[in-house]
């Protein structure tokens, strides 16, 4: 590990906020390994906004448009602007690995190779980069942590303080509900969200709901009863991270499906309760309390989720009314997990079998 690099390019063009956050420990590890290097990241908005305030990242680039070929063109531009000494990518489509290899840089383009079904994706990235001699052993246990400017922390504190004062709730820890995901197959039923919110409110918790941050991938659950909680004011992802950090400081919990904002909450320091159905919690878990719906589903493929018959259109082979794995996560089970997490936020609580 004696080699030093002046230019590092990291390419993550998978499209999701969660995908970028799973790579974040690797980005920070590469920056620590070569503190004098100029580290650039090519990724998508809105996740790119989290890195624009990160002192470990010298430059953030994004594709110029949303038409086909935009990602490949963005890689060509990044390579033309500065030739990297090291290029690392999670992106395998449209010949992007070949473009990086042709640049003459040292490249790591196979971070998805031969994954074990029970190794978290982010940990897998770290282990492969360590095997390549690019990270230290200490980096293997690094969690995802977003950089929060002081202004975002202060704004988050002001927001949560104001909501607590306005609702005059008892002193029970606040709970934030992330009620949607970018894919229908990952969504918990609306009636379950409303039931959970009602139970938590009856127990004295201030129940908050995430609105769509920066045009991202989720909606608030609605219906004739309205959203299940008090909406957090909208803003970009750094604003939302500041709000999550304020909730965490009060011993609060963030609940949601396998989606970017839930991972953002964990990266901001909050305890999370994750609701996992089509994705395997052993591989995609956030690291707080990760609840797996229908663990014995015969169609789930931990290392090939896009090949599952339910993945793209949320058509569950086991239940025509919706994803059976998400419906299997009962309100009683989720409520118990949230209550345990608020009582013991420093612990990783392991729930009993469903």
From TrEMBL:
The keyword Transferase applies. One of its GO terms (molecular function) is ADP-heptose-lipopolysaccharide heptosyltransferase activity. It comes from the Bacteria. Keywords: Glycosyltransferase, Transferase. GO terms for biological process: lipopolysaccharide core region biosynthetic process. One of its GO terms (cellular component) is cytosol. InterPro entries: Glyco_trans_9, LPS_LOS_Heptosyltrfase. Gene3D superfamilies: Glycogen Phosphorylase B. PANTHER family: LIPOPOLYSACCHARIDE 1,2-N-ACETYLGLUCOSAMINETRANSFERASE-RELATED (PTHR30160:SF1), TETRAACYLDISACCHARIDE 4'-KINASE-RELATED (PTHR30160). This is Heptosyltransferase-1. It comes from Micromonospora echinospora.
